[in-house]
C-alpha cells in the first residue's frame, strides 16, 4: 500500500515552498515525512493513510476543548449559515470582547484581529505610539510572531541590540530591538539603567512555549513590572499561547502581574483564525480611528471565528474544567518522567495548566541556552518512536505540547505505557 503522506508531501513541494504553509510542519528539525491530517476528533487525529494518533499538538494549543467539539462545530455551522464575512461590525464582536475583559481584568479595551502575529505587531506599534519612543526589549528564545522588528537574535554581548534572524529583514528594522536573556534580572536592570528613557515597551512570553516550556521566575516578572513602571515603558504580556491555556486568566493571573497590554490568540478562536490585543484604556485609545496608531483588517472579528471562540470560552468556564485539564497534563508529565527514570534515560517534564514541556536534560531549563544544551538527538529518537506507535508530539525539541479536555486519564495512561516501551528501546 502506498504511503499517502509521502505522496502528498512530494506533490505539495511542487507548488508550496518546502511543501508546508508554516515551517515547523515540514519536520525539518526531526527529519522524516510530515503526517498530512485528514480529520480530527476529540484527542485524536487521522492522517492521509487513515492511521489514528493520540494528539498532543492540538493545533499548537488552540484545541483546548478537543478537536471538532460538537458544540463548537454547531456554533460555527449556525454562524456560517448567516454569512461568512461582512467587513462591518456585529454584536457578537462586542459579546466576545466583553467576555474576554470579564475573564482578564487587565483588559479595559480590546480589539480583535486574525492572528497572533497581527496582535503582537500592533501591540509593539501601540507601545511606540503611546510613549513616543522607539526601543523595544524582547527575550532570547521567545517568539512573538513573524513581524520584522521581532525577528531578531541576540548580538554578541550581554546587552546588545538584535540582529535580524531572517533574511529580508533590514538591520534598520531591528536596530531598536534589545534582546536579553530570559530570566536574567541583572541584564534587565542593566538595560533599563542604560536605555530606560528610550524604551517604549517590553514584550514577554510569560511562560515561554517556543523554546519548549520555560517558566519565568517570580523575581524576573516582578522586576520587569517594577522597571517598566519606573521608566514609563509599556509591559506587554504575549499570551497568544498561554492565554486561557495555563489558567483561565492566563499566566498573568498566576504571576499576580497586571500588564499594560496583553496579546491573545489560539484558544480564543476555538480553532478558527482569531486573535486580540487589549489593555489599559489610555493606551488603547491611541489606536485608529481614536488615535494616530493605525491598524485595520478585513477579516478582523470574523463572525464564524467569533462564534467558535465564544462557545470555547463558555466551555472552559464550566465547573472543574481547569482542575481536570491540569490534572491530566500533570499525569502525563509525571508519568513520562517516571518512565524515563526507570529506563535510566536523562529526561524530565514540566506542566502548567494544559501546557507541558519535555526535556532530554537533567533539570527544567530556565533560559534559551539551557534548552540548547539539552539532548536534541534524544528528543528526535523519542519523537519518531512515539509517532511510529501512533502518539503525536510536536515535531521539534523547542516546542511546548498541549493536552485537551478530551484527553482522558486512560489515554494518558496509554501514552505513558507506549513511552515505557520507547524509553526501553532508546536505552
Q: What topology does this entry show?
A:
Layout: H1 4-13, E1 37-41, E2 44-47, E3 52-55, H2 58-61, H3 70-81, H4 91-103, E4 109-113, H5 116-131, E5 135-139, E6 152-153, E7 160-161, E8 163-164, H6 171-174, E9 177-180, H7 185-195, E10 199-204, E11 207-208, E12 214-215, H8 218-231, E13 234-239, H9 250-255, E14 261-264, E15 275-279, H10 281-284, H11 303-316, H12 321-342, E16 348-352, E17 355-359, H13 368-372, H14 376-388, E18 391-392, E19 401-402, H15 409-426
Helix pairs in contact: 3-11, 4-11, 7-8, 12-15, 14-15
Q: Give the overall form.
A: globular
Low-confidence segments, given as residue ranges, are none
CATH H-level superfamily title of the largest domain? Type I PLP-dependent aspartate aminotransferase-like (Major domain)
Share of β-strand residues: 15-25%
CATH topology of the largest domain: Aspartate Aminotransferase, domain 2
Helix content percent band: 25-40%
Main sheet record: 8 strands, mixed
Order of neighbouring strands in the sheet with most strands: 4-15-14-13-10-5-9-7
**β-strand number:** 19
CATH architecture of the largest domain: 3-Layer(aba) Sandwich
Computed CA radius of gyration, to the nearest angstrom: 21 Å
Q: What's the total helix number?
A: 15
**How far is the N terminus from the C terminus?**
32 Å
Class per helix and strand makeup: alpha/beta
Mean pLDDT: 95
CATH class of the largest domain: Alpha Beta
Number of domains: 3
